[in-house]
């Protein structure tokens, strides 16, 4: 039946949990440093001046994008990356406010830590009154080096405090606004589209697509069929065969393989592959994906 089908495009919605490397690099040569990227690398390239650059890499409860989550701990913890040109942090000051414009005016109506001596920049506990349930807050930090150089204020970062009670204990997903679903205390995963690294059509019309990595994601494609009810079988697998094919035998390993049939309609249409629902896993860290995920 493949001779009656023409695949126009193929893409993969990749499950992305905002992973990025924020670790300070080890000793690097000048060439390696100039070629490197990322917030720490950019700081290391900065010239030494009297004023430090603002702290970067802000986190709340170790979440890098806390505006895309709700936090259930009213005494949460803050973190940041100290500017590398300062060498060693000598002290810091944190402001927490109920609106970003207050921070712009230097006002902290929820907590002002004052200048706190110390070189810690992770797991700094909120020291003000418990933050109210179902509230949205903003915070920022500035730091001083051990030799007394002062940084600029960081950009304000938003975070959301969850409601309390049995409803929050039972529901893992929370809708902050219309269609804006976030998770409790866990970074929300977003999706972005990637194209195949390899796309091959053989003499029989079979199409092989290699996306270059195993990932959580969803396949989308656009196809044209000359008739209604044309069956198209798609084989998904983590292992590639010797030829450009999907390895279809799981054996005793945990290498994933699944075959899914999609029934095409006459004409050109866009399709998103629906996988059959699997029974709940007993694996310790397994989670159900949110119903609003694509």
Structure, described:
The two termini are 28 Å apart. Helix content is 7%, strand content 37%. It is elongated and about 70 Å long. The longest helix has 6 residues, at 30-35. The protein is mostly beta strands and 294 residues long. A hairpin with a 2-residue loop joins strand 11 (173-177) and strand 12. The chain is built from 4 helices and 19 strands. It has helices at residues 30-35, 39-44, 100-104, 166-170; strands at 5-16, 56-60, 69-70, 77-81, 89-97, 111-112, 116-117, 124-125, 135-145, 157-161, 173-177, 180-184, 190-194, 198-201, 207-210, 217-225, 230-237, 257-264, 267-272. Strands 5, 6, 7, 9 and 10 form a 5-stranded antiparallel sheet that branches. Strands 13-1-16-19 form a 4-stranded antiparallel sheet, with no helix packed on it. Strands 2-4-8 form a 3-stranded antiparallel sheet, with no helix packed on it.
Write the layout of secondary structure elements.
Layout: E1 5-16, H1 30-35, H2 39-44, E2 56-60, E3 69-70, E4 77-81, E5 89-97, H3 100-104, E6 111-112, E7 116-117, E8 124-125, E9 135-145, E10 157-161, H4 166-170, E11 173-177, E12 180-184, E13 190-194, E14 198-201, E15 207-210, E16 217-225, E17 230-237, E18 257-264, E19 267-272
Parallel strand pairs: 3-12
Antiparallel strand pairs: 1-13, 1-16, 2-4, 4-8, 5-6, 5-7, 5-9, 9-10, 11-12, 14-15, 16-19, 17-18
């Amino acid at each position: 039946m493949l001779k009656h089908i023409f695949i126009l495009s193929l893409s993969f919605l990749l499950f992305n949990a905002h992973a990025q490397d924020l670790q300070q690099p080890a000793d690097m040569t000048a060439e390696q440093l100039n070629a490197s990227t990322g917030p720490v690398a950019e700081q290391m390239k900065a010239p030494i001046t009297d004023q430090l650059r603002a702290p970067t890499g802000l986190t709340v409860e170790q979440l890098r994008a806390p505006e895309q989550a709700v936090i259930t701990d009213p005494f949460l913890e803050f973190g940041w990356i100290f500017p590398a040109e300062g060498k060693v942090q000598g002290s810091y000051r944190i402001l927490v406010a109920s609106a970003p414009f207050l921070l712009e005016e230097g006002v902290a109506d929820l907590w002002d830590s004052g200048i706190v001596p110390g070189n810690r920049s992770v797991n700094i506990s909120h020291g003000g009154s418990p933050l109210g349930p179902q509230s949205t807050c903003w915070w920022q930090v500035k730091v001083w080096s051990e030799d007394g150089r002062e940084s600029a204020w960081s950009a304000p970062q938003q975070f959301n405090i969850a409601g309390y009670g049995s409803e929050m204990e039972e529901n893992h997903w929370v809708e902050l606004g219309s269609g804006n679903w976030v998770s409790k205390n866990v970074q929300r995963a977003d999706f972005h589209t990637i194209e195949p690294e390899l796309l091959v059509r053989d003499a029989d019309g079979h199409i092989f697509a290699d996306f270059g990595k195993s990932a959580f994601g969803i396949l989308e494609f656009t196809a044209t069929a000359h008739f209604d009810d044309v069956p198209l079988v798609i084989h998904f697998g983590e292992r590639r065969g010797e030829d450009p094919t999907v390895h279809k035998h799981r054996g005793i390993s945990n290498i994933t393989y699944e075959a899914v049939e999609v029934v095409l309609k006459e004409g050109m249409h866009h399709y998103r592959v629906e996988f059959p629902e699997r029974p709940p896993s007993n694996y310790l860290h397994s989670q159900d994906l949110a119903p609003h995920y694509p």
